[in-house]
Amino acid sequence: MPQRKIIHVDCDCFYAAVEMRDDPSLRDVPLAVGGDGGRGVVTTCNYRARAYGVRSAMPGSEARRLCPGLVTVPTDMGRYRAVSQQVMAILRELTDLVEPLSLDEAFLDVSDVTDHKGSATLMARHLRERVRQEVGITISAGVAPNKFLAKIASDWEKPDGLFVIRPEDVADFVRGLPVEKLFGVGQVTASKLHALGVKTCGDMQALGPDVLIDRFGKQGYRLHEMAHGRDERAVVVSRIAKSVSVERTFSQDLPDMAACQTVMASLVADLNLRLSRKARRKPIHKLFIKIRYSDFSTHTLERVREQVKEPALDDYLPLLAELVTNRERPVRLLGLGVRFRNDDAPVTQLRLFD
User: In angstroms, rounded to a whole number, what is the distance separating the alpha carbons of residues 312 and 296?
Assistant: First the structure.
């Protein structure tokens, strides 16, 4: 079985990060989202607040006792969902195999992705940079051969970190890993393990599966597997891909429209390569094009083109000509893609008098 490449991404103090992005005056103060009033609890907080011991799910009154200068703002879930959708859209441009765990974290299976030289580390760097530039928040990422290790890795150098566990490093890494780092090991299970003389995964390996299963039942076998760095769970995709796209950010801005036209052919080739890797060819509904200028303003245009089976350069050049009104304006990013027709959507005929 080929070696899997899994990335886990986690937005750093997500709700607080969005608040600090949108209100720069909040960046240099200890900040909690939620927790105002007598009975409120902290939803999340920034790292300045965490330095005082403030934590999520803590009553606001306790948070203010620990940090008298704490600034609190109300939650704005609509805004956080919109930012989450931005982040997830960036992840899905790399691969369809994305499993969101919440608004602010997700697993990606990039085993078959050939972009970025097929390197999961380079892919994670690319995602972190794009989220920083386009969304204005930071994400931490972990790269590993499975979900369990990738999630641990993303937390290893938080905030704004990237940590990689290579397959050849797994055995050494897990040997010294504290049992508290394992998924599902809270204070109660950790205390029971400590009572058995087990503080690290190495200790757990020495204890053996029989003792663990006898003491913890079904969870004991899972603990044994994690202690050896094993996790066969697949990335579960619950969302049907609605589009495929490619884009390129240029280290030096393209000077004009003519330069854009010269790179379009390679972008169309990349798009068709990505489309060919799909398990099944879906019927194309629209073509779209995206352009970001040197001042970071971004513009998109899409047009229905249901007769297109395999997009060609000549299909996109008219869209480019329609979108670009100033042919001499420097371009920082160019992207293009397709949106699929949703033939799986249920079709119902509405009754006239309902």
Answer: 27
| Unique residue bearing structure tokens 């394992």 | 182
| Nearest by Cα to 248 from 225, 224, 232, 269 | 269
- Check if the beta carbon of residue 108 is closer than 8 Å to that of residue 7: yes
User: Can you tell me the distance from the alpha carbon of 251 to that of 235, in angstroms, rounded to the nearest whole number?
Assistant: 33
pTM for the full predicted model: 0.70
Q: Which of 39, 38, 65, 34 is nearest to 52 (CA)?
A: 65
Q: Which two tokens stand for residue 310?
A: 């395999």
Q: Choose among 47, 53, 41: nearest CA to 20.
A: 47
Mean pLDDT calculated for residue range 99-128: 93
Q: Is the peptide bond before 145 cis (omega within 30 degrees of 0)?
A: no
pLDDT tens per residue, range 289-340: 999 888 888 899 999 998 898 899 999 999 999 998 888 888 988 999 999 8
CB atoms within 10 A of CB 341: 14
Catalytic residue among 105, 129, 302, 328: 105
Query: What is the dihedral angle through the alpha carbons of 323, 336, 124, 121, rounded to the nearest 10 degrees?
Result: -130
Please give the pLDDT value at position 175. Answer: 94
105 is catalytic: yes
List of residues 6+ apart from 132 with CB closer than 8 A: 138, 139
pLDDT at 351 over 50: no
Among residues 345, 337, 279, 340, the alpha carbon closest in space to that of 311 is found at: 337
Distance CA 288, CA 315 (A): 10
pLDDT band for position 101 (50/70/90)? confident
β-bridge mates for residue 335, sequence order? 247, 290
For residues 328 and 131, which has the higher predicted lDDT (pLDDT)?
131
Instruction: Tell me how many degrees the CA angle 92-93-95 measures, rounded to the nearest 5.
Output: 60
Helices (H) and strands (E) counted in the chain, each on its own, are 13, 12
